[in-house]
């Protein structure tokens, strides 16, 4: 592949030692990836495949975010943003697939970690288009549009942040060669001088280094076959040293007809300059062979008319001595002292642009377009008060003296603007339809209209010539006239219908012109005779009578007895003869005449209009390619593009215009062309071809060219806006100014700074408002306010800005301040605007201001004044019957009443607003209607009128679906999910709406919220508790996990793996549980966040801790993994929690000895923290453990310690119950284990007191029985024994217990009692 030094990407140039090191590392990394990619084709399946000839089939495209003129790498946050977007595309490649199809390549895979996209190609044409887009900067621009979000585009307006694309050209060259080998014959240049065995002449065929020929690879062991393009000779060689020509040459040479492609010999002229202007000297004598040639003698000074191009046989010259003009052979001259290499490819006086643009018209239409897209929302439409009061007081309290001064300056400047506006016209200055029309072609200039001639019937034998006098008189004259230009340029049909009248068909016209020709011949009127022959030849060619046309045209060349001075006539004759010779395969005549036509095309300005087909231009390009004449190639491409553009053949314009831009980039010169116009032309054609990404990229490249004017920038903006709207399928009504247009607006604003005329002031004003709205739309309110303040403080709206538009801009500024939690500033602005309005009458715009003033006052907490302002706005709406705004004002009153606590009044106003909205016939107000319905529904739900609330929510959702408002659908769906999840529980309905919410989030592309919604659905299915529901929950969890992986959210990813493991545990697939938990642990460890790792390890243990199966596995996570991390990170609370869980777990698993250590640690930590509740729990657990370990004295100690920590005043029954059980346990320990009936009786008495307080008869039965036993058998107190026995008998009778046993049972242990009765 050829070298491409000037592109938006790619070369690793060393600008500094640091940057050089970075680029070297990136290049090495890129190389390793490609080599590894080639080696590991089997493992990567189709990522790379190697064909038999060992040619790779995949190309790695490396992306990098860079900034500044030196293309230094962007910060890590920006690089991570790129990787995150690539991860999303890696999971869902629909968008990137569509883009790469437009870029004529095919996506294989995406490596988001290395920022590499792998692509492949199927034909060499795809490689040609892809490399062209890469070279002229479209690939990088398309990547930016795909990967950089709108907010980033706005935030980097002042910075040169872009995506740099790099490809390995060696790999691409191998892919290109492999495809050519598969396709068969291809064009290539010789790498060295070499000989071929000629199959046509019998000798050897010699090709020099750089010569281009057609080669065909060997077939079945034969050698390579070669076709020489200069003379058609054929030859063979076993292994020729050749290199395929670049893809554009490949395509062009294959598209050429054989008559153009093969023949005409090799240019033998050794003229030293390839593209010359000035004067040259004749080196030998030459006698003219016809009226078109110039006779010269040695030493004659020949002035080059136009350009002398060394690779062509002829050029147009003028004798300095005599002034004669004609064709001169290039081989007959040598340079003189005043000859120079041309700096551009255009002739003097030649039109240098592809189309003409009227700057005033573009400015006017752009201004109107911006007004149409930006004014309605702020100048005519009421704002619904959905602003939150949160942090408003905080914002107001942060004011400083500097802010007060700034606010004072702002008020002063606004007052100045309003005072100026009193003298301006209230009517807008610009009133057009707000669309930018297509420019006119540069050739569409007004030419003089030739006269119209009447065709008289030809009567045989009638020699009357008076009928021909007007025509012959018009055609007389040796020199060119403007009227002739129209005659030469018209096609045969237009010629027959517009210049000549009175004939019934073309046969009658041809007969008339034939008699006129004969009359001119007889009267020796040479120039009328010549021109009539030309007209007859043109008419015959139009009727496909090419042989007859050739006769007339050849006669036209032979008639003049002196030199041609009407060179356009000569060019027109040549241009008709050349395609006829080509069609009739008269190769010798074709080449001879094509060379002469080339000389005229390079010599006469605007001679291009004479051509009817492109055969001569393709011949020029072929010769330029074979001769390696870059400037001749550039001019040929320009002329081919302009020729096809003139004939409305947009598809055929594209290759040549793209090649011209590539040539300009490689040479780092424009050669007098206008790259901005060329990019714009390409963009418009791409748009017609339904290639919106390429069209937007063309528009951006056009605006960035050094030659770009304000008109070019505005035209680029209109083109980009149109195609961005097409890309996202916005209708004209839905289409607003997209954020991707912000760079154009910013550049246009910079271009008009310092301009003093009113039209620039108007344009600058509207651009600023549009930019401000874009910032606000992307939640960058601070930047939006800054833009508006700059507009107001620097110069303010000009006097040419209408009063309504001025007020609209100031109202917008007020809204921005409200959105920025500065309602006081907004109120000042609105009061100034209100004061400037006439007092004797109201206007609809006054209602807009009053409504917004109510929003500001409500935000400040002044509800009474806010209500007055809203009511005034309602009155104005009623006066003007403005139903849409009336509905909004009523809704604002309702929302105000809600905030004031007047619920019934609020319901009335909101209901009236809903009624007004529902009666509207025109669209555009659905978003406000939906918001009001949702607010009213919330009100009903809070009032427990759930059916009404559900009705409002469902109405809002149906309306949002009907008008396709995704944000409103999301909001309504969330309300319904919440309703069925909390207020009116219905799991099935909640799941249905949650699933719809996921579908909507998928449409919006908000992957983060989609993942959260999927997690919520998973939890809903888990709550159902069936195995089928668990399986569904697992599917949603895995989908959410995939999103977390794509977004690079490591913490959510870890929890996703863990949640999947938990569900597998629920469905008893134990073989997968450990695997998923281990992956979750690995992901958590990769974050390096100790606290997060600790939380996840604890959550992993909780899976088994909260289960009835495999509970012992929780010990591993708590004790062996989480607890060491908690100790190392000094996370005391986590240690306490883990020790408590371990104690509880080991207690349930009967690991009493091991549990004591953790219970003691929990006690120590609780005492250190002063946490009395956990201290009490720890004492109780220690007491329970020592009880089970039969260390009864310690158990008694810790139980008593626990009781000392309990509150003295018992507030709840649970506390009393706890006292009863603990004292009973203590009594059992003393009685059964320590054999002390006396102390045991004391604990039983205390337990009985608590049980009596609690009223628990069963506990009283047990305790009375124990006391009766002790007093009867051990303490021998018959009275107390009888008392407690009788009490026990009474409780037994009530509880239907048949027998009471008071026999001594001290052989039992308290532990057995504990198992029976619990603690």
TrEMBL record:
> Does Acetylation show up as a keyword for this record?
no
PROSITE patterns linked to this entry:
SH3 (PS50002)
Q: Which UniProt keywords apply?
A: SH3 domain
Region annotation (Disordered) maps to 1-30
* The name this protein goes by in its record: SH3 domain and tetratricopeptide repeat-containing protein 1
* SMART domains assigned: SH3, TPR
> Taking every annotated instance into account, which residue ranges of this chain make up the domain SH3?
275-338
Q: Where do Basic and acidic residues bias regions lie?
A: 1-28
Q: Which gene encodes it?
A: LOC117556570
Record-linked SUPFAM superfamilies: SH3-domain, TPR-like
């Amino acid at each position: 592949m050829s070298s491409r030094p000037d592109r938006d990407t790619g070369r690793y140039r060393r600008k500094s030692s640091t940057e050089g090191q970075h680029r070297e590392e990136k290049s090495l990394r890129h190389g390793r990836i490609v080599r590894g990619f080639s080696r590991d084709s089997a493992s990567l399946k189709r990522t790379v495949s190697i064909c038999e000839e060992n040619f790779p089939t995949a190309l790695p495209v490396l992306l990098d975010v860079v900034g500044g003129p030196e293309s230094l790498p962007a910060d890590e946050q920006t690089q991570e943003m790129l990787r995150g977007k690539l991860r999303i595309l890696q999971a869902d490649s629909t968008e990137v697939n569509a883009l790469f199809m437009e870029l004529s390549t095919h996506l294989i895979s995406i490596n988001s970690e290395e920022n590499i996209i792998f692509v492949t190609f199927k034909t060499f044409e795809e490689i040609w288009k892809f490399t062209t887009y890469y070279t002229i900067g479209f690939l990088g621009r398309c990547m930016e549009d795909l990967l950089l979000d709108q907010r980033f585009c706005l935030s980097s307006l002042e910075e040169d942040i872009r995506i740099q694309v790099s490809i390995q050209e060696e790999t691409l060259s191998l892919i290109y060669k492999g495809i050519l080998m598969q396709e068969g014959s291809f064009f290539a240049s010789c790498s060295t001088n070499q000989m071929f065995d000629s199959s046509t002449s019998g000798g050897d065929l010699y090709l020099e280094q750089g010569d281009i020929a057609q080669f065909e690879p060997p077939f079945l062991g034969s050698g390579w076959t070669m076709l020489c393009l200069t003379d058609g000779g054929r030859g063979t060689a076993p292994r020729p040293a050749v290199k395929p020509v670049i893809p554009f040459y490949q395509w062009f040479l294959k598209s050429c007809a054989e008559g153009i492609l093969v023949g005409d010999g090799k240019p033998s002229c050794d003229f030293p300059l390839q593209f010359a202007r000035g004067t040259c000297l004749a080196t030998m004598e030459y006698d003219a062979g016809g009226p078109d040639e110039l006779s010269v003698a040695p030493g004659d000074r020949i002035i080059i008319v136009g350009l002398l191009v060394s690779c062509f046989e002829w050029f147009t010259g003028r004798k300095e001595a005599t002034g004669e003009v004609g064709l001169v052979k290039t081989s007959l001259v040598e340079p003189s002292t005043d000859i120079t290499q041309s700096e551009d490819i255009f002739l003097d006086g030649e039109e240098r642009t592809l189309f003409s643009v009227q700057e005033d018209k573009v400015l006017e239409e752009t201004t109107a377009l911006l007004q149409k897209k930006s004014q309605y929302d702020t100048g005519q439409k009421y704002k619904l008060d959905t602003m939150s009061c949160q942090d408003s007081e905080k914002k107001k309290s942060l004011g400083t003296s500097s802010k007060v001064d700034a606010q004072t300056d702002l008020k002063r400047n606004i007052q100045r603007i309003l005072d100026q506006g009193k003298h301006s016209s209230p009517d807008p200055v610009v009133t057009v339809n707000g669309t930018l029309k297509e420019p006119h072609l540069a050739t569409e200039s007004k030419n003089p209209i030739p006269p119209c001639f009447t065709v008289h019937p030809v009567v045989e034998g009638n020699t009357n010539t008076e009928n021909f006098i007007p025509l012959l008189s018009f055609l007389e004259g040796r020199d060119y006239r403007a009227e002739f230009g129209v005659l030469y340029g018209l096609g045969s049909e237009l010629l027959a219908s517009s210049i000549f009248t009175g004939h019934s068909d073309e046969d009658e016209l041809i007969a008339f012109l034939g008699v006129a020709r004969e009359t001119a011949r007889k009267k020796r009127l040479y120039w009328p005779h010549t021109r009539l022959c030309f007209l007859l030849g043109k008419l015959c060619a139009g009727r496909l009578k090419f042989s007859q046309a050739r006769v007339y045209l050849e006669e036209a060349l032979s008639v003049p007895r002196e030199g041609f001075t009407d060179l356009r006539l000569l060019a027109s004759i040549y241009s008709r003869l050349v395609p006829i010779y080509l069609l009739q395969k008269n190769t010798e005549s074709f080449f001879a005449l094509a060379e002469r036509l080339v000389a005229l095309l390079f010599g006469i300005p605007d001679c291009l209009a004479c051509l009817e087909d492109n055969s001569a231009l393709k011949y020029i390009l072929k010769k330029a390619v074979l001769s390696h004449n870059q400037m001749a190639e550039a001019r040929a491409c320009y002329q081919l593009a302009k020729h096809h553009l003139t004939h409305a053949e947009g598809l055929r314009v594209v290759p040549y215009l793209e090649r011209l831009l590539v040539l300009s980039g490689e040479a780092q010169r424009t050669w007098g062309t206008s790259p901005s116009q060329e990019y714009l032309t390409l963009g418009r054609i791409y748009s017609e071809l339904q290639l919106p990404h390429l069209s937007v990229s063309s528009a951006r490249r056009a605006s960035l060219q050094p030659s770009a004017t304000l008109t070019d920038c505005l035209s680029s903006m209109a083109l980009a806006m149109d195609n961005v709207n097409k890309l996202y399928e916005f209708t004209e009504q839905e289409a607003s100014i997209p954020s991707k247009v912000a760079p154009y607006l910013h550049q246009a604003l910079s271009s008009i700074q310092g301009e003093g005329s009113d039209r620039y002031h108007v344009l600058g004003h509207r651009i600023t408002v549009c930019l401000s709205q874009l910032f606000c739309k992307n939640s960058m309110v601070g930047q939006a306010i800054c833009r508006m303040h700059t507009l107001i403080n620097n110069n303010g709206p000009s006097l040419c800005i209408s009063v309504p538009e001025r007020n609209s801009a100031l109202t917008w500024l007020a809204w921005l301040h409200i959105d920025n939690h500065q309602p006081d500033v907004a109120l000042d602005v609105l009061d100034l605007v209100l004061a400037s309005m006439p007092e004797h009458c109201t206007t609809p715009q006054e209602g807009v201001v009053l409504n917004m003033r109510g929003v500001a006052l409500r935000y400040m907490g002044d509800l009474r004044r806010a209500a007055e302002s809203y009511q005034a706005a309602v009155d104005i709406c009623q006066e003007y019957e403005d139903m849409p705004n009336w509905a909004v004002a009523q809704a604002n009153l309702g929302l105000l009443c809600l905030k004031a606590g007047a619920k019934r009044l609020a319901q009335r106003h909101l209901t009236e607003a809903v009624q007004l909205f529902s009666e509207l016939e025109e669209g555009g107000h659905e978003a406000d209607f939906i918001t009001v319905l949702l607010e009213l529904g919330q009100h009903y739900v809070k009032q427990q009128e759930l059916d009404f609330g559900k009705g409002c929510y469902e109405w809002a959702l149906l309306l949002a679906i009907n008008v396709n408002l995704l944000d409103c659908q999301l909001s309504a769906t969330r309300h319904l999910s919440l309703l069925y999840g909390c207020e009116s529980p219905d799991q099935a309905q909640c799941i249905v709406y949650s699933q719809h919410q996921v579908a909507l989030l998928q449409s919006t592309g908000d992957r983060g919220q989609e993942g959260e919604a999927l997690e919520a659905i998973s939890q809903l299915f888990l709550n159902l508790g069936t195995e089928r529901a668990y399986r569904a929950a697992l599917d949603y969890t895995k989908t959410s996990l995939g999103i977390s992986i794509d977004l690079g959210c490591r913490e959510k990813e870890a929890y996703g793996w863990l949640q999947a493991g938990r569900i597998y545990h629920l469905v008893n697939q134990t073989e997968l549980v450990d695997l998923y938990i281990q992956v979750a642990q690995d992901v958590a460890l990769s974050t390096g966040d100790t606290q997060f790792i600790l939380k996840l390890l604890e959550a992993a243990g909780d899976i088994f801790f909260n289960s009835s199966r495999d509970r012992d596995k929780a010990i591993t996570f708590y004790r062996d993994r989480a607890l060491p991390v908690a100790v190392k990170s000094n996370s005391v609370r986590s240690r306490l929690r883990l020790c408590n869980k371990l104690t509880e777990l080991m207690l349930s698993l009967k690991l009493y000895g091991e549990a004591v250590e953790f219970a003691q640690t929990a006690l120590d930590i609780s005492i250190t923290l002063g946490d009395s509740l956990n201290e009490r729990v720890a004492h109780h657990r220690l007491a329970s453990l020592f009880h089970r370990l039969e260390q009864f004295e310690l158990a008694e100690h810790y139980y008593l310690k626990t009781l000392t920590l309990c509150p003295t005043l018992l507030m709840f029954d649970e506390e009393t119950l706890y006292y009863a059980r603990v004292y009973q346990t203590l009594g059992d320990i003393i009685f059964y284990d320590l054999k002390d009936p006396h102390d045991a009786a004391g604990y039983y008495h205390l337990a009985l007191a608590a049980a009596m307080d609690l009223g628990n008869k069963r506990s009283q039965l047990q305790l009375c029985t124990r006391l009766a036993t002790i007093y009867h058998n051990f303490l021998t107190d018959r009275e107390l024994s009888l008392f407690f026995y009788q009490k026990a008998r009474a409780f037994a009778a009530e509880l239907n217990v048949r027998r009471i046993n008071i026999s001594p049972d001290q052989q039992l242990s308290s532990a057995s009692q504990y198992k029976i009765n619990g603690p």
